[in-house]
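INFO worker-7 received task bundle
INFO bundle size: 2
INFO processing item 0
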Amino acid sequence: MLEDIQAAIPLGFLLAFMIGPVFFVLLETSIIKGFRAAVAFDLGVILADVIFILLAYFSSYQLLENLSNQPGLYIFGGTLLTIYGATIVLKKPKRNIENPLRYNEPSNYINLFIKGFLLNFINIGVLVFWLGLIIVVGPNFEGNTSRFYVFFGTLIMAYFITDLIKIILAKRLQNNLTPSIIFKIKKGIGGILIICGIALMVKGVLPKDKLNPSDIIEDIRP
């Protein structure tokens, strides 16, 4: 099991820096709303990951492969992501009397947790990724469920700790931000979400060969 832990830690660290909508929204949440808000968001993201991991491990491979190849799921998730990004881009900042340019957005940790969960859960590509990873590393467990829990538990923990470091570093920028910069950051994140959503929809409509989930992990293998 020590070998499983040693293999999981660097992979968890690497996954924390994979570029995607969650990566940018996490940094934005930390910069604008602070440490606790970003942690709440990140816990929601991790819950979605845990559900995907368990689903990929305990469900039929053929079922998940067929599910992952349904273009409608990509289009549905991409549409939701695009709409969410568009609402951010079109939303006007709230104003208050003391400083008309300042945002007035008190943190609701439950909402942020749900936001993180849904933002990760609607992306079918995340499920495909975890399925590909399990296909690659699963044979090493030799049918030992305890080794599975140790490996992925360590991976998620390393992922979360790395995210905490990212959150702390991003939060240091908070005091240097002006209202106009915050406004531009939010608009930029909205634009990134729109791009990610469109990319997900395009992936659903373009013709593609039969999915081989094990190919997904090859590019990030240590």
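INFO item 0 finished
INFO processing item 1
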Amino acid sequence: MNGAEIRIQCEPAEYMSAYLSMPKSGSGPGVLVIQEIFGVNQVMREITDMFAAQGFVALCPDLFWRIEPGVNITDKSKAEWDKAFSLFGKFDRDKGMKDVASSLESLRRIKGCNGKAGTVGFCLGGMLAYLSATRTDADAAVGFYGVNIADFLSEAANIKKPLMLHIAGKDGFVPPEAQAAMHKGLDGNKLCTLYDYPEQDHAFARQGGEHYDESAAKLAMSRTIEFFKSHLA
């Protein structure tokens, strides 16, 4: 790991931890990495480091802090999966989005950030990345296999900055009808780009995960990096 733990303000007298990784140059656009249901774990830290290696000031905040600060679990045991789903069930989406907005504000203030900041999220974070496009001033947003996005398509009219979504065609958590609804609700919006990965299941970009697919993961990530470099320069 190349980053460091910092604290960022999320309420008048409340702080949450976040993992910050800086590019070698010391400066660049900001990318807010939004966690899966396993917390700010090794996978999220490595993704954050990867964005830093690509020239971004990358920050991954602990969005479960209101439930249990410092969650850092894996997808390798039933007990961890049970805990992850329990945390997901307790997660307050609206307060979480307040924390995303606060994190974006903090990211833009980090020395070296050029003032622009995008969001990228996975699973739960994929939904929050979509909502960051409808509810925050993120300069660009990318969601990987976001869950429940179809429930919030009524907010699509609020999208003012570019949004990219990576959709797993065989996603066990996002059924075909939800995927179709996402296309119907977003394909006509010139700010939205949706990519389908027809043979992939949920979390195809989680390295080491059951459904990890190297080829699809590399393609989706290369599209994401090019998207951010285009819109956050």
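INFO item 1 finished
INFO post-check item 1: Residues 4-231 form a domain with the Rossmann fold fold (CATH 3.40.50.1820).
INFO post-check item 1: The mean pLDDT is 97.
INFO worker-7 idle
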